[in-house]
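Entry 14: structure prediction run for Lon proteolytic domain-containing protein. Input pasted below.
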Amino acid sequence: MSSRARTLAVCSALVIALLAVAAFAPLPFSIAYPGPAANVLGEHKGEPVITVHGAKARKTSGELRMTAIVATGPQVSAHLPQVLKAWFRRDEAVMPRDTVYPVGDNAEEVAKHNAAQMKQSQDAAVGAALRYLHRSPKDVQVDLELADVGGPSAGLMFTLGIIDTVDGDGAGHDLTGGHSVAGTGTITTDGKVGPVGGVALKTQAAHREGAKFFLVPRDECSDAQAELSKDMRLIPVTTLTGAVDALKALNSGGKVPSC
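Run finished. Output tokens:
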């Protein structure tokens, strides 16, 4: 064998070895998928998601669906073939692991963190809804139950669900107008809607459940449009009042904001 052939053989072997190492080396990414899209006006695992005390609960029609993503666990390593596969699929997304699991890779610690974020989100949703309805938390109490879902991104939909359960559109009609409306977004007690992650996957979760309208934080319009179904309409929002007004306009034939 000539020296050139030997050199090529050695180089080829090194390249193959490097590719093999790269293919099986753990990478700091998680693979995310469309998750649940529970109707906050309905029941979850046999229990009502929203229970009101101190005010008469309305009988509602339509749906208000919160949306979520699921991701590979904090201790599950993504490898190059998985990352490349997910990169080219519309129903998967590659996300930096530390954005999905900011508290580390301990499963118990992650679950505790997500539960705390959900509790904080629910408390903010109750506060924002009662403030919008001009009701005192001393007179009206709200219990929210949604097991197996963590994080803060259901805040907006929880808030709208409480408003629809207590007051509807303020004129005796459902806030949803009988439609299936999905969405995402954090909420503050003063009614500001904040951005979340994974909105392109969340629109897919909503479409899977038959939703035709999707409330999205305005700053994430372009992300939400990335994998949007042709029969789903995006409605951008920045505040709770804006979200309620958009739903009222949708049902009355008024002007509805769009991305």
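Notes: The radius of gyration is 23 Å. Will compare against the previous run tomorrow.
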